[in-house]
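Why do we care about 3D structure at all? Because function follows from shape, and shape follows, mostly, from sequence. That is the central idea of this module. The next example makes it concrete: a single protein chain, its amino acid sequence, and then its structure expressed as tokens.
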Amino acid sequence: MALTITLATDCETDTALSSAIPIEPIGFTRSRHVARISPERSVDRRQNGDAARRTEDSRTRRKAERRMDPSGRPRGGVVISTEGAVPGSMMTPAMLNRQRRLSEAVAAVPQNVCSAHLVGIGGAGMRALAQLLVSRGWSVTGSDLNTSIPALENLPGGGLRIHQGHDHRHLQREAGVLVYSPAVGTANPERQEAARRGVPQLSYSQMLGWLMRQQQGLCVAGTHGKSTTTALAGHILQYTGKDPSQICGAELCGNRQSGRAGASELLLVEACEYQQSFLDLAPRHAVILAIEPDHFDCYATFAELQSSFAAFAAKIPAGGSLLVSGDSPASRSAGEAATVPVETFGLTEGCDWWAADLRDVPEGTRFRTFHKGDYFTEVFLPMRGSHNVANALAAMALCHRAGVDPAGAREALAEFPGVRRRYEAVGSYRGMTLIDDYAHHPTEVLATLKTARATAGKRKLWCVFQPHQVSRTESLMDDFAASFGAADEVVIAPVFAARESTETDVLAPSARLAEGICRNGIHARSCNSLDHIVATLDHDARPGDVVVTMGAGDIDRVHHEFSRRLRRNHPQG
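And the structure:
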């Protein structure tokens, strides 16, 4: 099976690629870099661009063929294919260098490998990968500083062993490949041991790409909603008998599974833009949800972020397709780089896939869908919020590409069990309704609290927010401060400084955010610890209040503490 050479994404790689499509910066507004998007290109310009790309791809293909022996096998044992690679017309020197490193990494992994060691197995993506590999019958070991990972317990086949901490002795003798999370550098003792023994090493995203090149890839990308849309699409495909393999960054409610191995050729993957990791993938069909400024620790400007999405769109090979958010100008512009058919989806009339007549009903939302102006189906979605309607529409459109009919999509969505930490009702404590959500960007905060207000009505609405990363909090401070308008009381936790120095001040940005929220007319306070937050809610919240915790860190520990108190005070008899 041919391996496509694309872009490496470990933590030591080069900086973000330069702009690949015409974007004219016009300044900053509320700490957000705003870009004027160029108007849609004419048909002639698109055709000319397609011809240039085909010419460049032909040159690349001829170079690859020269490396093949008469039997079609690679000279020197390296398999090279241009399918799914970034077109040469979009290459920068940094991308070429990273592509070279990726080619060397994937070429070293045998096709018949069936054992892996995962370093940093506690991360959401790595957990899903472990679940997929174990359910495929692989022998899997892993290591992490935190080994209390409920999602990895009781996996089928007993093919998983997890070590606490990092030590060169954790690398099993029979490991066929070592996979490391983006947070694990080359100084890790297990990676050093793998290098000493000649065990191939792939980053998490490279491993996904290696798997995807053996199947038909379906990818979901975008700033917001990737996990929910991937989970929705996976549920539709499973419900309708398509039996995909799946990697998602969030777990389904009920089974706590985010990765699975299916029997079909479909592999559905949540495609993350952090450090351009989605450029390691090989999508056949893809979705780009809304694009907004984010990941300020690896993208200096919004133009760089948008260029990465354009490169992702350009990777889709002939015979594939792309869906982009019609409600996001940045997504539409990134989609112009694609050489395959592109359709839009959204809540705006005129999109190729359009959701209309949204109605709140008990336990969810009902809406009608249209495709190319024709009625498609009516859907009941057991989730609230127009943002989730857009996610469901994207999932339906992607699954339609995989052969799912309207009736199948409609029936599947009505039975969707929900996603953990995506507006998840987690119980009650002393009469308070407890909801947990993963929102960690101003747009997500605004959407979640709008949904919460519609649910809470006139009840008092608390929002306990844990900012994620100092760089994101500082860069979007004004936007964050303006996003809590639907709440009555806001409590700000210390920043969860993911991927940042342990010496980073996580209290000062939270205090400034609380001050900014107060200036917008909402009562807010900052707390120095999660224990302080629990004590605050214990003292000030009242029966009937709705408490929403939000953030991508460990803010859900607040609910765990409430559950622990309930178990202590009301032991089961």
